[in-house]
Write a structure and sequence with these properties.
With 726 residues, this protein is an alpha+beta fold. The protein has 3 domains: 170 residues, 2-Layer Sandwich (Aldehyde Oxidoreductase, domain 4); 179 residues, Aldehyde Oxidoreductase, domain 4 (2-Layer Sandwich); 300 residues, Aldehyde oxidase/xanthine dehydrogenase, molybdopterin binding domain (Aldehyde Oxidoreductase, domain 4, 2-Layer Sandwich). The strands form 7 sheets. Strands 4-6-2-14-11-12-13 form a 7-stranded mixed beta sheet, with helices on both faces. Helix 12 packs parallel to helix 13 and helix 15 packs across helix 16. The protein is globular, with a radius of gyration of 27 Å. The N and C termini lie far apart (59 Å). It binds dioxothiomolybdenum(VI) ion. The site of dioxothiomolybdenum(VI) ion has 11 residues, from loops. GO terms for molecular function: xanthine dehydrogenase activity.
Length: 726
């Protein structure tokens, strides 16, 4: 189905099932431990052996040789494969660092060997006996030092300049010129990267944990020089990804190579230290923002520069993205620079670009409001825009940012905030409130599904879409139930198998809207088949309560499958220029109250509120869970999360959950989420947009601004640990 004009009235608008707060249909399986995650799939292949991955102990250099004598002789060892046994495996387009093969080491804990043994303990013990002779080279590990040599990376797909920034800035009456920084961060999902691999002749199956099944199939085939049809990925349950499982990682290719070597199924999980240094992370940024405005508070000029680092051929963190679009102003320029670093690969982590970009921009907006003597809510409202400020002929498809701010201010009790910093005190605690805007784009991407109607009237949906803890199973079931006029209980959803039609996958908060739109398309096709089979008029047919009605006729839906199961497959496709005709984004207002210990600088969050404008909310309950999870991640980014770089040896030191701190329940005492009742007909026939990443966008700055309001100390470098108050 081609989607090339804004959606009109359609069966989803009935909202009998869609749009209702609905418990996860996979909840009972998960809460009783019966949802099988990759490493626990004991039943999929017999006689599974265990693989243990060895990571390089240097950050840069080459391997001269391995001494495997002791390791091979260790109990239970079946085989050891090393990186010297292979050429570097060909990489998929979105991977940067080598996954395995060759003597060259690009980063610390790059995979250099796999020990396969009868038990996990035996594999791990043998791995510790491997001796490696390295030729170590000096590397570049310090972003601040390399920043001076960073090279511009113009974003060819985007507009980087509009108007004349220098001239508009020069004649601005009030100016801000400040620098901000964000650290390297880790996804720190609960489930590690894990894979069981088994070969049947030349056919490889991997039971794994991956967000993007179609990419994984393509890239695994490429890595092992197989045809795509020789490869199957299965990933029905994913214990968190946050971008860390978008692309193929070493667990997948090493399980496959190990299984081929020993002629048995092999299972491999990355240990927590390997997750930190072997896989990817959110790159640190150094940001420079200048804003000029007139005394009346109207912005004239905005400039945003971001410097990040990555391995050669790696991508920059696109932290300037939102600055193109978020606020009005006649002139702006955005730019990114990339420094070469020999740290592990930087890549996408939840809301790549906007998450760290807004951590800077939204502090800058708070600083400007103060310089102008304006309330920070009003300053943002004053500079709202309903069109792309760099291409004014292009409107936003739907933008209710002002309503997010007004609703939030009212519900949060913003009028009680004292504009003068440091003026509210409760004993040793300084109390402050902060606000920030949230912004995240909505991306359209093809998504397909197959729908089956069986003789008992049950609907089965099959798509390679993943549920990374987001609630995908449930919103897909809701969509199919609404479209086919059946109860939620009559829908079976099967996900994550590359033998199913290729979906949008889970990434970039595009999963919910696109994958359900693919199910919508398949259901439209199924409805036609049903109407034809039942001899009903397709034009006025209604699917409701297990019946199909047309005029004064009503027939049970299951009658259509009387002579055998009906199957319909289709996908949603977008006209090439569709996304260019209107800018699709999502918006939020974040409000935070903090208490800061006047003596130690310890910051405690007291309350958080997010008001979200993200189109139709398909399931308010699971969407709320997405947003509060993202707000929690934003609190982590603001107050504690930081991969600490060892600048001598080039690795992330705090490579476990003891050292890499994430928020716990005690850090998050109170959260509220309000969804504006909006739809966006430009997004898909579902009129829904992404929301899973919106929740993290802006939170960090709202906390920073609350700390400033509490203390009068302006922090611009994250995380805002207590030492930064000194
Ligand atoms: Mo998201 S960082 O695209 O999983």
């Amino acid at each position: 189905m081609k989607f090339d004009a804004p959606a009109t009235q359609n069966p989803i608008d009935q909202l009998k099932v869609v749009g209702k707060s609905t418990d996860r249909i996979d909840g009972p399986l998960k809460t009783t431990g019966r949802a099988p995650y990759a490493y626990e799939r004991h039943d999929v292949a017999a006689n599974q052996a265990y693989g243990f991955v060895v990571g390089a102990a240097i950050a840069k250099g080459t391997i001269r040789s391995f001494d495997l004598v002791d390791a091979r002789a260790a109990p239970g060892v079946l085989s050891i494969i090393t990186t010297l046994d292979y050429e570097p495996l060909p990489l998929g387009g979105q991977n940067t660092a080598n996954l395995f093969g060759g003597a060259k080491i690009q980063h610390y804990h790059q995979a250099i060997a796999l020990v396969v043994a009868e038990t996990f303990e035996q594999a791990r013990a043998a791995a510790s006996l491997i001796q490696v002779d390295y030729a170590r080279e000096d590397g570049k590990f310090d972003l601040e030092r390399e920043a001076a040599r960073a090279k511009p990376v113009p974003d060819e797909d985007e507009t980087n300049e509009a108007g004349d920034f220098a001239a508009s800035y020069a004649r601005s009456e009030v100016k801000l010129d400040q620098r901000y920084s964000t650290p390297d961060e880790s996804h720190a999902m609960m489930e590690p990267h894990a894979t069981i691999a088994a070969w049947e002749g030349e056919k490889l199956t991997v039971w794994t944990s991956n967000q993007m099944i179609a990419w994984g199939k393509r890239d695994l085939a490429r890595a092992l020089s197989l045809k795509p049809e020789q490869v199957r990925l299965d990933s029905p349950y994913v214990g968190g990804g946050f971008g860390g499982k978008l692309f193929l990682r070493a667990d997948v290719v090493l399980a496959a190579l190990g299984a081929r070597t020993v002629g048995r199924a092999v299972k491999v999980a990355l240990t927590r230290p390997l997750m930190i240094n072997n896989t990817t992370h959110r790159p640190a940024t150094l940001q420079h923002i200048r804003i000029g405005a007139n005394r009346d508070g109207r912005i004239l000029a905005i400039s945003h520069e971001s410097i990040s680092g990555n391995l050669p051929d790696g991508e920059p963190e696109t932290a300037v993205q939102q600055t193109r679009l978020f606020y009005a102003g006649e002139s702006r320029e955005v730019s990114m620079k990339l420094a070469q670093l020999d740290l592990p690969e930087g890549n996408a982590m939840r809301a790549p670009g906007e998450a760290p970009g807004l951590m800077a921009l939204e502090i800058a907006m708070d600083e400007m409001a103060e310089k102008l003597g304006l309330d920070p809510v009003e300053f943002r409202i004053l500079n709202d825009t309903q069109v792309d400020p760099m291409k004014p002929e292009r409107p936003f498809s739907a933008r209710h940012f002002v309503e997010c701010l007004r609703t939030g201010a009212e519900r949060f009790g913003w009028q009680k905030r004292k504009a003068t910093p440091g003026s509210v005190r409760e004993g040793r605690w300084l109390i402050g409130m902060g606000v920030a805007g949230g912004f995240r784009n909505n991306q359209l991407t093809r998504s397909a599904a197959r729908v089956r109607l069986s003789r008992d009237g049950k609907i089965t949906v099959e798509t390679d879409m993943t549920d990374i803890g987001t609630g995908t199973y449930t919103i897909i079931a809701q969509t199919a139930a609404e479209m086919m006029g059946v109860d939620l209980d009559d829908v079976i959803v099967k996900l994550g198998d590359s033998d199913f039609p290729a979906s949008a996958g889970s990434g970039g908060q595009w999963g919910a809207a696109n994958s359900t739109a693919g199910v919508y398309a398949a259901c439209i096709k199924m409805r036609h088949q049903v109407a034809t089979r039942l001899g009903l008029n397709n034009a006025d047919v209604i699917f409701s309560e297990g019946e199909v009605r047309s005029g004064d006729r009503a027939l049970p839906l299951r009658n259509a499958a009387h002579d055998g199961e009906l199957v319909a497959e289709d996908g949603i496709d977008y006209a090439d220029d569709f996304a260019d005709r209107a800018q699709q984004s999502t918006f939020a207002g974040h409000f935070v109250k903090v208490a800061v210990d006047a003596f130690t600088g310890e910051t405690r969050i007291r309350r958080m509120l997010a008001v979200c404008d993200a189109g139709r909310i398909l399931n308010p309950k699971s969407a709320r869970s997405q947003v509060i999870g993202a707000m929690t991640m934003g609190a982590g980014a603001a107050l504690m999360e930081e991969l600490v770089v060892d600048k001598r040896f080039g690795f992330f030191v705090n490579h476990d959950l003891a050292g890499y701190e994430v928020p716990v329940h005690a850090d998050i005492p109170h959260q509220d989420v309000i969804f504006l009742d909006t739809t966006d007909p430009w997004s898909t026939p579902m009129k829904a947009k992404g929301v899973g990443e919106l929740g993290i966008c802006g939170v960090g700055a709202a906390i920073a601004n609350a700390i400033y309001n509490a203390t009068g100390v302006r922090l611009r470098d994250y995380p805002m640990t207590l030492d930064k108050h000194l």
